[in-house]
Structures are given as C-alpha cells and as structure tokens.
Amino acid sequence: MARAEVSARWPFGMSRIVAAEFTGFSASHFDKMVADGRMPAPRRDGSRLVWLQDELQAALRALPTAGDDGRNEWDTAA
Question: Which of 55, 64, 67, 78 fits 40 for a cystine, CB–CB 3.0-4.6 Å?
C-alpha cells in the first residue's frame, strides 16, 4: 500500500482503539506498549487523548525485526 493510501485510510490523530487497530495490536497490548515506551504517549486536548499517525509509524519501525536478538556482533568481536 502506498504511503498516500495509508494516510487516506487512517486519520492523522487517532483514538486509543483506532491507534491500536492501526498498529495491529489489541487495545490491551497497545496499552502495555505505551506504558513501557515501545509506543508513543498520546497527545492531550482536555480529556481527549490522541495518537499521531507518524509517531505510531516511527514506533513500529523502531521495533526489532524477527530474529533480531538485540545483540551487536561488534560487541563480541575480539
């Protein structure tokens, strides 16, 4: 899907439920990811919380890829 198509399908500012759906996680798992910093904190306007699409995309891109154990091969090079 092209970037323009993603933007057209999803709003720039999203509620918690929509943000969870956008990222592909359940709402409860999304909440855990926000709490531990893997997903961004929401923006606040009064009592309304809003997650921004570009911040969610950046957080998803920052997640490790499958098979990435987080180690740097240069750390163990002798």
Answer: 55
